[in-house]
Specification:
This protein has 160 residues and is an alpha+beta fold. It is built from two helices and twelve strands.
């Protein structure tokens, strides 16, 4: 019986994930998006498409007039590797220098505690993309952001 419950719970999680992918086009601005740690005030025409989600982290694609960026947010993270260009403050996360990792360009931001986000692009980041990244704020596990119009959450449910 326990095996059946595990299989059913796994199937429900998969269905929840597929349902989120099916409605991904609904995550468009203007709206305040809170997901997997990053908080973004989406501008008109900006769209977030969920890619993968989990308990501590998740990823999504962020499209706008600046182009397309893949974002991986972590609500429970250590300090990212690399050179810190902008120190984190209470209001704004710190930003790390762009680096090339596995053929992709990556920029990390970090709140100085346990939350980070990694932005990935197939080309070097443009000034418009840097300005978009500078609009992102972070929350971490245990914190609940307020006034979120759009939000991604991990839900684990087993009915007994």
């Amino acid at each position: 019986m326990e095996d059946v419950k595990i299989v059913l719970a796994s199937a429900l999680c998969l269905l929840n994930f597929l349902a989120a992918e099916a409605s991904a086009s609904e995550l468009s601005g203007p709206a305040k998006f809170c997901g997997y740690s990053p908080i973004i005030d989406l501008q008109p025409g900006e769209i977030v498409t969920p890619i993968q989600g989990g308990i501590h982290a998740g990823s999504f694609r962020w499209d706008g007039s600046f182009g397309s960026i893949v974002v991986r947010g972590l609500g429970w993270a250590s300090r990212p590797e690399g050179r810190l260009e902008i120190e984190p403050t209470e209001e704004k996360p710190g930003r790390f220098a762009e680096r090339n990792q596995d053929g992709k360009y990556v920029i990390a931001i970090w709140n100085g505690r346990q939350s980070a986000a990694y932005f990935e692009s197939s080309t070097r980041f443009t000034d418009r993309q840097l300005a978009a990244i500078d609009r992102v704020r972070l929350f971490q596990e245990g914190e609940e952001p307020s006034d979120c119009d759009l939000q991604t959450k991990f839900v684990w449910s087993i009915d007994e």
